[in-house]
Amino acid sequence: MKVIFHGHACFTVESGNKKVIIDPFLSGNPLAKKKPEEVEVDAILVTHGHGDHLGDTLAIAQRTGAVVIAPNELAVYCQNKGAKAHPMHIGGAYEFDFGKVKLTPAWHGSAVINGEEIIYTGNPCGFLLTMDGKTLYHAGDTGLFGDMELIGRLHNIDIALLPIGDNFVMGIDDAVEAVKMLKPKRVVPMHYNTFDVIKQDPDIFAKKVADLGFTCNILKVEEELVF
Ligand code: NI
Ligand code: MN
Q: What are the tens digits of pLDDT across the range 98-107?
């Protein structure tokens, strides 16, 4: 499995000749170098409707025909905008041709906000993505929750992508608690330093994770991790 970080909560995940992107916030993302027009994927996984996650989903889906995989209400929203979509919901898994996707809970909100208009798009989610026997957990935007223990017990997580930015999501100490419950083989912090309000030092997180005996990889934008 190859994981490429595009900044914020956006990652490309590749295995064999299959490729998916998660939360493609690129054109509005001050950290991103990748252009939405360069994205070629089999599927787009979207955790929730906020602009820093839905991002360029519609443009990529319309251009490439990639299927949007998201919680039902958000998938239907994308379908109504001309995207091909596969609605799912929390707790459900589905075997796609690129791999298996299971939706996990996330404690957050989900809406598309255009000025004064707020379109609610159901519950937010996280994703367990299994490709060729390797399992990735993208927590989405979430606070800490105890059922991460269950996620860790039921799934052999090869890599966990965890938000550490605080304010909207887990901060560093809560994300360290998440690692204890998930017991992943490696951890990558996300959702920090994109904006001032989520400024964090990822080295502090990495040290706390290492002190627990887990591996933490801080990825630079466009850096790849192969395992
Ligand atoms: Ni959000
Ligand atoms: Mn966010």
A: 999 999 999 9
